[in-house]
Predict the structure.
Amino acid sequence: MKKFLAMLLAMVMMLGCVAFAETVNPDDIPDTVTAEDGKYEIAFVTDVGQLKDKSFNQGTWNGVKLYATANGLTYKYYQPANGDQATDDDRYDAMKAACEGGAKVVVCAGFMQGTALAKAAAEYTDVKFVFIDGWQLGLANVAPIAFAEEQSGYLAGYAVVKEGFTKLGFSGGGGGTNPACIRYGYGFAQGANAAAAEMGVNVELKYSWQYGASFSASAELQTMISGWYETGTEIVFACGGSMFSSIVAAASANDACVVGVDVDQSYESETVVTSALKGLSSATAWAIGKYYAGEWETVGDVATSLGANNDAVGLPTDTWSLTAWTVDEYNALLAAIKDGTVTIDSTVLENDGVVNVEFSNLKVIYE
């Protein structure tokens, strides 16, 4: 994660968002600070799961900490009550606490925040809200930031098939209702199929949303994935926050492999072959910076989707461990995505969409 976050900071600096040393490790920045006046200027309202989930929440939180620390601002995180069972009221209460606690900018992570955010932003019109993995709410004080996860998923699927894996798995979070996870999974299938077609091989993909509704680790999820590995699955895309720990546990017990998500998760387990990345930290810092630069109107109620052309998705090259597919080959494919030579469909957003798609060299086993 350290090297990837340093790379993300470099991207942020290129965008003129924040001037901060590339060598800063966000893990070295404290999660809590004390404000002398009791007011915290930048707030973060977490998605379901743990703050330090080594994935979606943590990547977003790192962006908050990095920007705030670089600019001498106070910051605080708020976790909605009731954990994985949080309601829209719980999320609204967390946003209200952030606003009344002095926040000028509130970063809200995850698509589940939509209903509560619409209410909070309409009431606290002087506060700016950054909606990560979000969409337009018709409110000028809300900046929705989304990602082209299908591109990152495509690269991961392509990479693992080029590496020689032919029996794949995808375990998605959100129970099939999270657009980001759906895009990741659909892209993963497309990339795997493209590589298989080029190589003249056939690949199978077990595909499931089971035990992922809350993005949490569970014994049930670990048992299911262990069963996959025991019956021949070689590598599983762990696409869902804290679900990662259950899937890694299953992989470790079966001498199998994992694809990480959102951030470079190879630092967390030797089972991780590569990770499908998106620039959570840099995008968060960039959006916050728009407020402080007096440029909020460029992002407020503007549908922003960041992808390959923004250097906001990809695979980690600093920790590259693939041996049959090179970084140069990866960069060539990434360039082809950027210039449109390689196109990736992003139109299938239903949770059963992948199983209804005809792939030439990929058999989807939907579970």
In short: The chain has two domains: 2-147+279-310, 149-277+314-366. Residues 35 and 74 are 6 Å apart (CA to CA).
